[in-house]
Amino acid sequence: MSLQSDAVFQKIIDGLKENEAKAKSVNGVFLYKITKDGKVAKEWTLDCKNAKAYEGPAQGVKVDTTLTVADEDMVDIALGKLNPQAAFMKGKLKIAGNIMLTQKLAPLLKTDAKL
Amino acid sequence: MSFRPLVEGDCGGVNPLMQLGGQFTRDVAHKDEGFVQRQFERGARPEDQLINEFLGQVSAPPQSFQMDTLLQEMRDINIQGGMHTQQMHHQQADQWNQDFQRGLAAAVAPPLPNKMIHMQAQQQELQHAQEFFDEPLIRSQNFHQPYMAITAGPSSYQQQQQDPFFDSTMETIITDNLPAAPKGESLDDWITDYQRSAEQKEQTAANFNEKFWQRLQDEWQKLADENEHPWLSEFNDNLDAYKEYEFAEENPMAELENAFEKGKEYLAKGDIPSAVLCFEVAAKKEPERAEVWQLLGTSQAENEMDPQGIAALKRAHDLQPDNRQVLMALAVCYTNEGLQNNAVRMLCSWLAVHPKYQHLVQAHPELQAEGSSLASSLIGPSKLRDLQQIYLEAVRQHPAEVDADIQEALGVLYNLSGEFDKAVDCYNSALQVDPQNAKTWNRLGASLANGSRSVEAVEAYQHALQLQPGFIRVRYNVGVCCMNLKAYKEAVEHLLTALTMQAHTNAARELPAAASMGQNQMSESIWSTVKMVISLMGRSDLQGHVTDRNLAALNEAFND
Fold first, then answer.
1. Which domain holds residue A9?
2. Contacts of residue B457 in chain A, CB cutoff 8 Å?
3. Do A115 and B336 touch (CB under 8 A)?
4. Structure ipTM
5. Residue of A nearest to B482 (CA)
6. Cβ separation B219–A100 shorter than 8 A
7. How many domains in chain A?
């Protein structure tokens, strides 16, 4: 099944490949559970320690942080329409594990305008 | 719990009014804070009315029948039932306590069993009322009359008579309260006590919330401080990532004499990709010439190729550590790449080598960034704030005139700290000094966009493009802006324009062998954004072209 957030994760995969050093500076393994209509539809693993990302549960590495978010909200976060911290406060984004690491993740997700 | 003494009877048994109040308490405690006041008010009014009306009617019912014995019986029944509900209530309260401490989420569970208990207790009261009325007819008849007398009087009662359930509970309340007249005043106190305890409850809940978030915040802070040490090794890795500049494999300008001058001409014309090619040639020929690396670096940044830009600028920095333009350009590139500490370091150095503001840095020796790279990696978020303060001091030094460079630097610092509105103010000030500076317009636009003011950002970008139509970075930013506004078609068009300008440089056009060369002159960042937009558009049929970097096919797809 194809979700809107697939685009976001594709971009993350490219970003990690392009700039491995930046990925490694985040130094965490994140498991994303994307929900659609309330049920978990897809899982993505962001392995910043090895600078790669793939669909499905983590393989061979321990997950530091698990994030559960709806498909539409994931896209909004990536487009900068929804602030991840605000999403967390509203309960749209559920985080389990090392919360601090997700702060470092933010620049990887969002497409920033360049100065 | 504070309302325990309220629920337990002072003397004698627990009367239904207390029970009823206890149920209201329980309800309020379990529900969301937002509901507390409303529930309580709803509960208070009928009770208040009841009490007031009852007190007014105390002398009304004639004692012509054996009310006392009947009431005693009732109370006995109530005590048994009351104890039961009281116990359950306490259990529930303890349960709730645990749940609340375990986590806010858990608090959702209690309301369900709570409602059941509430219903049960009310059912019991109904039962009592029912039993009472099932007593021998004589007694009940006699009781009815005075009861009717009471109810006939106050009009508010009549309104409420519509509700049979309320009627029955009222009956039990009134009957029980007949001998309990002196307790009337204590009921008033009880209500104020209850109000107070409800407020306290709210307060503790609010405090708990605050403490929870405070603890979360502190944890974050601790982790932030801790994480700086592992960053030490990562810092060195990062340093290496940008070390080497990657030259184009086949450079059509390779045989050019005076490549540097030609490059500057292209820049003046606004053709950034061609200028880049020329500067590369010049840099290969004269690697010790700092200005070549400098222009190569700044051009690559404008060409939306920050990693290359950083590599080139570092060469320039090595050759000329005091060059403020190089320092500023590096700070901007590092900011774009998310390397906060490096950017802060650059801006610190910028101030330290500036003849007008050097003394400010000297006054704050802890910020000195010169020295080994190890020292710099320990700069934390507080250093960013300190540096912002120092720059503000610099501004205050000359309040009458605006130093555009200081404003630009402050703008970068505010972008780093996420205070985009302040950054916007800085760039607006800088533009007052030089309104024809396309780079400043771009930075204004980017600050607006990152601060989620996308529509205003587009305006700023338009200014920049009017001044310099070949400004690749601005076109990329416009594309990103359109994407954030979900205008995917426009986004793709802008991005493809940027890529086309990079692939088909004027320089390349002059030479026949240039067709295949365009590939490595195109920005990775632009391509990955194109990929994302196409995905968001749902045009998976075009993804193949994106992966193959087939610009021609994509242009065709979007040109009709």
1. 2-104
2. 113
3. yes
4. 0.85
5. A79
6. yes
7. 1
